[in-house]
Amino acid sequence: MSEVDELEAIRSKKLEELMKRFSENTESKKEEFISSPVTITDSSFDETIRKHLLVVVDCWAVWCKPCQIIAPVIDAMAKDYAGKIVFGKLNVDENPMISRQYRIMSIPALLIFKNGVLVDKIIGAVPRTSMEPKIRKYL
Prior knowledge:
The protein has five helices and five strands; from the N terminus they run αβαβαβαββα. It is α/β, with parallel strands linked by helices.
């Protein structure tokens, strides 16, 4: 094998490796098509808000009537914005660390994260017509 052939083989192998690495990175950065709220816990919280570009975390509790009122709205928005916004549900009674960290004093509370950073909050059972524009502005 000549030096030129050897160099060409090395070049081809390196190009193949670079293309494979690029393909893997591109695949891992694609937003998942999630059409229903995901369950978020103290242990999965950081990974969830960092993995997705825009995440709305619904902080709720089983006994909370206003939380039950907005639950269908959150479900519907998760379907409507699938692939653009990931909606998550964090039970504050079962996940006290995140509740303390973000000083959740009233529920329901929606925490809006863009690129892993808290950018806004919505406190209380507000109608979709009030909630949606506040969330959409971060798309």
